[in-house]
Each structure stands twice: as structure tokens, then as C-alpha cells.
Write a structure and sequence with these properties.
It is built from nine helices and six strands, in the order αααβααβααβαββαβ. It is an alpha/beta fold and about 240 residues long. It folds into two domains: about 1-45, no CATH class; about 45-240, Rossmann fold (3-Layer(aba) Sandwich). The radius of gyration is 18 Å and the shape is globular. Bound molecules: zinc ion (2 copies). The site of one zinc ion (ZN) has 9 residues, from helix 3.
């Protein structure tokens, strides 16, 4: 029965691929059979984060002698450590826009795969109890139909074989988008914006997933609550991140 289901599933996917052939998430050209997510030409130009990067938040830094980025030199974070896949440049910004606002949910598979390809070993070493996406407020979730961070979290959790827990952290205040605010306003905007479930007590090490990281205010706001509930380590996994210099 399972085999039959798989055949139907595969066949279905093949039909879907004919009707809606997968396109490059950057240039939107139809992908060749040996390409996945992104065409070879665009993949070579993507701003993957390479060392040297900030030891705390994962932002690229200017030189190998620089341990921490400008942000992390100015303010300390409460999360344990962060890693990120890409710098937030124009092509990535457009792809993330389509992912979030044009319902291109299928991008999540590629994002998850690339994150694991680069950081899988490190992530496995963290030995996390759960993968938790940064939540959306229920009003925004209803409007968008999905939480982009949860889609990425599921792709990571599946590959790491770590349970994904989307109902451990809630956004109880429908905050203004962080990108519209300055640093001071960001912290104020997020104060009391989140709430955590009592079930968090059984978790010691958590991977927190989000699509974009700018100053780390969101990650800190959630990490603060988790630490207070007894979580010991909070690792932050990010799809795209600003520059650290
Ligand atoms: Zn392309
Ligand atoms: Zn940093």
C-alpha cells in the first residue's frame, strides 16, 4: 500500500512538474533536470556566508582577526550562537519576498537543504531537543496562510531528525514589522510580544529558526523567555542576515 502511495505521489509530482515546471528561485528560468531550487548559474552568484564571520551571530565580518561584528561588539546577545546561510543582498531580498508574499512555499526545501549542506555537522553537534520557528501573530498567519520560518524549520528538523515544535512560542502582540523601526524602537516593539508554552520546561537545547536577522532583537526577545523557563542553549539558524561591518 505504501509503495503504491509512493508511486502515485511520484507520478503526481511528475504531472505537477509538467504543468508547473520548477523555476530558479533567483532568475525564475525553468530548471534543468539536474538542478534543484536554483539554476547553476545563479547558485554560483548567491551570497553564501563564508568565513570570517562573527563568532556570536554569524554575520560576515571584515577580517579574520575580528571576532565579533559591530553589532555584537556594541551589545551582548542572550542567545548562544547564530549561523546564517546568505547575506541579505538584492537578489536574495527578491527571492525571500516571493517566498513570503507570492506563496512560493516550495523554496523552503532548497533553503533547508543548503543550510544542512553547510551547517549540518555543526547543527548535529548542538544535539538540540527541538527546532522552533519564530512565530507570526495569528492575524498575520491567517492573512499569509503559512509561517515562512516554520516551513524552513520543518525542512531542517526533518533532516536533523529533531522534532519541530511550532506551538511552544507564540506572538501575542501583532508587532509592527521590525524593518520599519530603528534599534530602540525594535526592542520596545518586541517587549512582551511573545509568550511561551509550559511544555518548554522539558527542553534544554533549542534551535530557533527565522528567515531574516538584522539586529537580533527578535531572537533575543524569545531567547530571554526560553532562558527564564530553564532552556540552557538557544542556537539561532537564519536564512539571510545583514552585514556585520
Ligand atoms: Zn537562476
Ligand atoms: Zn555578531
Amino acid at each position: 500500500m505504501k509503495q503504491l502511495a509512493n508511486v502515485v505521489k511520484k507520478g503526481g509530482r511528475r504531472i505537477l512538474n509538467v504543468l508547473y515546471p520548477p523555476k530558479c528561485l533567483i532568475c525564475e528560468v525553468i530548471l534543468a533536470p539536474d538542478e534543484y531550487g536554483c539554476c547553476h548559474s545563479c547558485a554560483g552568484k548567491l551570497p553564501f556566508i563564508e568565513p570570517p564571520y562573527c563568532l556570536k551571530c554569524g554575520k560576515p565580518v571584515y577580517s579574520a582577526e575580528t571576532e565579533y561584528c559591530m553589532d555584537c561588539q556594541k551589545q551582548s546577545h542572550v542567545f548562544t550562537k547564530g549561523i546564517a546561510l546568505w547575506s541579505y543582498d538584492e537578489q536574495v531580498r527578491k527571492a525571500v519576498y516571493r517566498f513570503k508574499y507570492k506563496n512560493r512555499r516550495e523554496y523552503a526545501g532548497y533553503f533547508g537543504e543548503e543550510l544542512i549542506k553547510r551547517y549540518g555537522r555543526q547543527m548535529r553537534g548542538w544535539d538540540a531537543d527541538a527546532v522552533i520557528p519564530v512565530p507570526l501573530h495569528k492575524k498575520r498567519l491567517k492573512r499569509r496562510g503559512f509561517n515562512q520560518a516554520e516551513l524552513i524549520a520543518k525542512e531542517i528538523g526533518r533532516r536533523l531528525e529533531v522534532p519541530v515544535e511550532p506551538d511552544m512560542v507564540f506572538r501575542i502582540v501583532n508587532t509592527r514589522p521590525q524593518k520599519e523601526l530603528n534599534e530602540k524602537e525594535r526592542h520596545k516593539n518586541l517587549k512582551n510580544a511573545f509568550k511561551i508554552s509550559k511544555n518548554v520546561v522539558k527542553l534544554k537545547k533549542i534551535i530557533l529558526v527565522d528567515d531574516i536577522y538584522t539586529t537580533g532583537a527578535t531572537a533575543d526577545a524569545i531567547a530571554r523567555l526560553l532562558l527564564r523557563a530553564g532552556v540552557e542553549k538557544i542556537y539561532v539558524v537564519i536564512l539571510c542576515i545583514g552585514k556585520g561591518y
